[in-house]
Structures are given as C-alpha cells and as structure tokens.
Specification:
This protein is of the alpha/beta class. The protein is about 45% helix and about 10% strand. Bound molecules: flavin mononucleotide and iron/sulfur cluster. Flavin mononucleotide (FMN) binds next to strand 4.
C-alpha cells in the first residue's frame, strides 16, 4: 500500500477528498460524499455541448503528462461524424515507480467511473474502457466491484440515469512495456494488436479505437471532470495557477519518506518536497530533483522555487510526466543518474522512428564513456547536436522526453560534466601540441 502524505489543510482535494473512506466501493457512502452528483447534473440538466463548455470554462488540462486541453478532445470527438464513439480511461501508469493513478483507482473508483460517464455523455459514447496495469490487482478488484454497484444503481448501464442512453464500462487489465501508456499504443493493445505509436493527426478523438472517435483521458483528468460538473468551473478555476487550474497527484520521494499527495498546480517544488522532509529549512539536504519519471528532467536544488505546472516545468527543462518527484542524495552523481535514465529510455524506444531509435542509444553511449573516464573531445558538441536532431523528428513524445536527463546535465551541472570531459580536453590539447611540434597545422 502506498502512503498518502498529509498536505496542508489549505490545499483543496478534488481528487482525494473521499480517499479516506473505510470501503471505497461502498456506493451509498460515496454518494453521500458527493459521488455521481456531477453526472446527475450533466445528464438531467445539461446538453452534451453544455458539458463540454463547462469543462472548457474550467480550463481542465490532461493529467497524463502533456497537459492537453480536455475540452478540445471532447469537442473533436463529439463533432466527428461516426456511428459509435468510445471513451478510454488511461490508468496504465507507465512509470511503475509513480503509483498515482492506481492509488486513485483504489481509493476512489467512483470518481473515475463518474468522469468516464460524463465524458461518454458529452461525446455520445455508449461504450468505455478503463485500462489498468494488470499487476494492480487491488485497483482492478475495487473498480470491478464499484462498476457492478454503479450499474445496479442505474448510474450506468442499459438506461443511464433513466436518460434513455446506454453506457457499458469495462475494466481491461493491460500489461506491457513503458510505451503501452502512450495513447495510440494503448488503443492498439485494446484492439488486441501489438502496438507502436501512430502518426498523428488524425488524433484518437477523430480516429481512435477500431477507427472510431475516441476520447483517451488519464484517470485523474476524468475524476477532475466529475468534480468540475459537481462544484462548477469557477470553483475549479480558483484552485492552483490561472494558466492550469486544479490539482494533480504526485508521487514524491525523499531520503526517508515517500508517498502520494494531491497538490494544487503551481505549488513551488520546495513545498512539495517538504511533504517528505526534504527541501525545507530543517529538511534533509539533497542535490537535485528528478521530475517526471525516467524520461524526466533533473533540476538543481537551486530551482526549488519553480512552480509545479506544465509550462513552468517545461521552461525549466523537465515535465510533469508520470507525476514522480525524486530528491537525490546530496552526494549523487547526476551524470551517472542521467546515464541510467537514458539507458532506460533507449531500451524502451519502440524503434519506429530512426532518429529516436539510434539517437537515444548514441546519447547513452556518450554518457557511458564520459562516466567511464574515456570521453572524446567532441562529446559535448555531439550531445548538443544529437539532442536537437532527435527532438525535431519524433512520432511520439518519447523521443523529445528521452533527451531530457542528459540535457539537464548540460544545462545545470556543467562544471561536473566539464570535469568528466577533462581527459578528452587534455587529450585534444596534447594532440595540438604534437601537431605544432611536427610543423603541421592544428585543426
Ligand atoms: C512514452 C509515453 C508513456 C505514456 N504513459 C502514459 C500513462 O501511463 N498514462 C497516461 O495517462 N498517459 C500516458 N502518456 C500520455 C498519453 O499518450 C496521453 O497523452 C494521455 O493518456 C491523454 O490523457 P490526458 O489528456 O488526460 O493527459 C504517455 C505518453 C508517452 C509518450
Ligand atoms: S519517437 Fe521513439 S518511441 Fe516514439 S514512435 Fe518513434 S521510435 Fe517509437
């Protein structure tokens, strides 16, 4: 069981507000605490387009990493002509070290089910899938129990809230590698096929599962949509930062403590790390923070005032990614950490795009020889060139993100990198001296 971290009382909890329930599958208790109020409002009082408008007014952005505007996807799916449409809730959790999504499914399965039903109502879908990592047995068990109870109570099923509309929601355990979390790969897996990322456009909202318009949404995004319908877009907009309102789940690790917390977007990194006893005045010292999972950015402790938001992290060279935040030890070797992460990213690259397949391996090789004390004089330039080439040509975001660990080292830990590049610099200088002595031009 992953611990839920205690957060300041002033931090709102749209996602984990019901997380302390003794039995999260107890439907009566969940309904008393607000579950399905948003769905009732949507189905009984709002036209589908008005639901999309409410989500747009809230400024909801996807919590699966990229921060795409949720209302844009719903509108595209609703307005694409099709006989059938689907909703797919992405609860795969590609980064197994960040258990934010399975924990939400375990602690409040009704929030996700309600969000799925609202999305289905908004786009006109009669069928939905909640994809969960197959090893997350607890989340799957509770989701199945909650779905059964919600159907029996008429919230979903043959006649959703007596609306005359049908909605079937299935739980689908899925298991695979890191790339399975990417939406087009996940859709292929749900079709029973082996998947690699697909060229977009067309986006899944126009052509997704079985070629039909499909809204693929992270489970947190859907749970937040349920909260927005219940409490209103203005209440949501008042939480977090104006550019990206609301909260998000993070899995934060310090030297002594780790756990999951719901944080308002825009919260300074320092305040998040203080939850695990790192970063504050009395906190344990650390050198850097790895943000976003294995393809994340490594920020120096000097950047602890950076707000945890999509735009601020992107500008700093990191990303929200899996919601993982790890404080490294004070004596950590960031270059070795970056090599490890790059090796993981290179191994997980599916290989469909050549610059990603070859480029991530080259970056790994360069990191490896620098760490082994055998750098080449051109390595720093090569790293810069490779990163620029790779990010410009990916079929999916993995290519760009895989360059982040080494890019962080070049941007923030240059003295350490230069120290490790020193043997190559000396070698080059030695070659120059020999060339001058020999009377040849030195290049
Ligand atoms: C390599 C890779 C792995 C991903 N893994 C996940 C994942 O585990 N869960 C998730 O929701 N999104 C993941 N995504 C993002 C999805 O492709 C997609 O953008 C997201 O599910 C859309 O939902 P959202 O708009 O609610 O964020 C991943 C993307 C990439 C490139
Ligand atoms: S960018 Fe990388 S991971 Fe994405 S499709 Fe291309 S090779 Fe595969």
């Amino acid at each position: 069981m992953t611990d839920l971290l205690k957060t300041p009382a002033s931090w709102p909890r749209p996602l984990l507000g019901r997380a302390s329930a003794d039995d999260p599958t107890d439907l009566d208790a969940a309904v008393k605490a607000g579950a399905f109020a948003g769905l009732k409002k949507a189905v009984r009082t709002l036209a589908p387009a008005a639901v999309v408008a409410e989500i747009r007014a809230a400024g909801l952005r996807g919590r699966g990493g990229a921060g795409f505007l949720t209302a844009d996807k719903w509108q595209a799916a609703a307005s694409t002509l099709a006989g059938r449409r689907y909703v797919v809730a992405n609860g795969y959790g590609a980064d197994p070290a960040a258990r934010t999504d399975p924990v939400l499914l375990e602690r409040d399965p009704y929030a996700v089910i309600e969000g799925v039903a609202i999305a289905a109502w908004a786009i006109g879908a009669d069928s939905a899938i909640i994809a969960v990592r197959a090893t997350e047995a607890g989340a799957i068990r509770r989701l199945e129990a909650a779905l059964g109870a919600a159907e029996e109570a008429g919230f979903i099923g043959a006649n959703m809230l007596d609306s005359g509309r049908e909605l079937t929601i299935d739980v689908r355990p899925v298991q695979g590698a890191y790339m399975l979390g990417e939406e087009t790969v996940l859709l292929k897996a749900l079709e029973g096929k082996r998947g690699q990322p697909e060229q977009r456009p067309p986006y899944p909202s126009e052509r997704g599962l079985f070629g039909r318009p499909t809204v693929v949404q992270n489970v947190q995004t859907l749970a937040l949509a349920a909260w927005i319908l219940r409490e209103g877009s203005a209440a949501f907009g008042a939480i977090g930062s104006p550019a990206a309102p609301g909260t998000i789940l993070v899995h934060v690790r310090g030297a002594r403590r780790a756990g999951i917390a719901e944080v308002p977007l825009g919260t300074p990194l320092r305040a998040i790390l203080e939850l695990v006893g790192a970063g504050g005045r009395s906190g344990l010292a650390f050198k850097a923070v790895l943000i976003g999972g294995p393809s994340g950015g490594i920020l120096p402790a000097a950047l602890l005032d950076t707000p945890y938001s999509f735009a601020d992290l992107r500008d700093a060279g990191a990303h929200i990614g899996s919601g993982s935040i790890v404080a490294t030890a004070a004596e950590a070797d960031v270059l070795e950490l970056a090599e490890l992460l790059t090796r993981f990213c290179a191994s997980e690259a599916c290989g469909k795009t050549i610059p990603c397949r070859i480029g991530t391996r080259r970056i790994e090789e360069i990191a490896s020889r620098i760490n082994a004390g055998t750098p080449r004089p051109t390595d720093a330039d090569l790293l810069t060139d490779l990163s620029a080439d790779i990010v410009a040509s990916g079929l999916c975001d993995h290519e760009r993100l895989a360059t982040l660990p080494m890019a962080s080292v070049m941007r923030y830990f240059r003295p350490e990198l230069d120290a490790k590049l020193q043997p190559a610099a000396e070698q080059a200088a030695g070659r120059q001296r020999v060339a001058v002595v020999d009377g040849e031009p030195a290049h």
